Amino acid sequence: MANIKSQIKRIKTNAKATERNRAHKAEVRTFMRKFRQAAASGDVEATETALRAASRKLDKAVSKGVMHKNQAANKKSAMAKKAASV
Questions:
Q1: Can you tell me the distance from the alpha carbon of 76 to that of 70, in angstroms, rounded to the nearest whole number?
Q2: Where is this region: Disordered (predicted)?
Q3: Can you tell me the distance from the alpha carbon of 86 to that of 84, in angstroms, rounded to the nearest whole number?
Q4: Residues in contact with 83: Cβ distance below 8 Å, sequence separation at least 6, in sequence order
Q5: First CA to last CA distance, the chain
Q6: pTM
């Protein structure tokens, strides 16, 4: 454990940010899993709804700094391609 006061504060701040980021990433993964399940079921309406929800969550993660914008764009592109093939 650090002895310097500012470093102790940084450790606490980083721990909070890590927990927050972990929660956001888990939520994004959940929505992406729901999209994959909807696409696998073959239901076009459910797939489109799940795609919109997952895309929204990805954009939110980017705006919060949890995920890089290019990574989110790649995931959204792959999901849109999958949705188009359903």
A1: 10
A2: 1-23, 59-86
A3: 6
A4: 35, 39, 47, 48, 51
A5: 53
A6: 0.87
